[in-house]
Design a protein that fits this description.
By secondary structure, this protein is α+β, with helices and mostly antiparallel strands. It has 2 domains: about 100 residues, 2-Layer Sandwich (Alpha-Beta Plaits), CATH 3.30.70.120; about 220 residues, Glycerol uptake facilitator protein. Helices cover about 60% and strands about 10% of the residues. It has 14 helices and 4 strands. Strand 2 and strand 3 form a beta hairpin. The mean pLDDT is about 85.
Amino acid sequence: MPARIVQIFLPESQIGQLETILPRHTRRFWRESVPGEHEKYSCIVQQRYTERLLVDLDEAFGHIPSFTTYVAELEAVLPPLQENADTELPLSRDLPPPTWLERFFSRDRLSTDEIYDDIEDSLKLRPSYLLTVTLSAIIAGLGMRSGQTAVVIGAMIIAPLLGPTMGLALAATVGNWKLGSQAMVTLAVGSALAVLAGIAIGVIATIDPLTPELRNRTLVQPSDVALALACGGAGVLAFSRGASLSLVGVMVAVALVPPLTAAGIYTGAGYPAAGANALFLFTVNLVCVNVAGILTFLFQGLPPKSWRMTASIILVWLLILTLLMSMMAGTIFLDIGSWD
């Protein structure tokens, strides 16, 4: 059973309130004396209870400057923590009991703070991020030019667009505008670099515009929408359970980097209409990944700050997706935007 050890430091005067909070979230906790005017409590918490414990601690002691809490993952616990109906810890009286579906999908999810920590570092515009985006776009572009699918997939392993994409979905879910704006800037810079790398390939190298790996990035079909939705949902499920970021990143990057690079290649090679179609595919994929990501985060029980705000953001994304799908239908049935 996934578990966390939570260490809490706070003034001795707050011990009474803390001892009323801990039994609601864990059955294993102990007190330790530390030098100074503070006390330390350590507790072993099932992963699914970590979220609500941190929320209660923040609400009760967040205003105290000297209050500190550390959370760390445990590899093993003896005796093991049992998870069944008899050992389930009750929620507060003002909250409805979780359904079996909520228990199933939230039992192994990381807490919101842990997800924040995983995403935060990937949103910074470091030289390594800029260089990795550029190199992954170049590798993907050369792979598409020569029709080598394996090379394209390999490039997705190093493409660092997972963090910004998941950051957008998480920000929309919990209503964090600062996180959303930072993710949007990082994603926009990475996308621009991928297009510029593609333009450089299109200008320098000889391009066959009908190469299947390239041409497929100019076509938007219902299957592409389904694929992007599946990538977004699967990416969030894996990401929120602490899976390997490289493997999770492949699922998301494969829907974003190749269309961006293809748009640049076609533009650089003198096929602007084909480049526009590839950008259209990228836009459809990005919207689908975010819609699926937001819904999956909500399905896993991430608490929005404001349901009205989150619902409004989802509605905007769905309206954009509806508009894009209408344009896609025009492309398929009326041959609008055809370049070949």
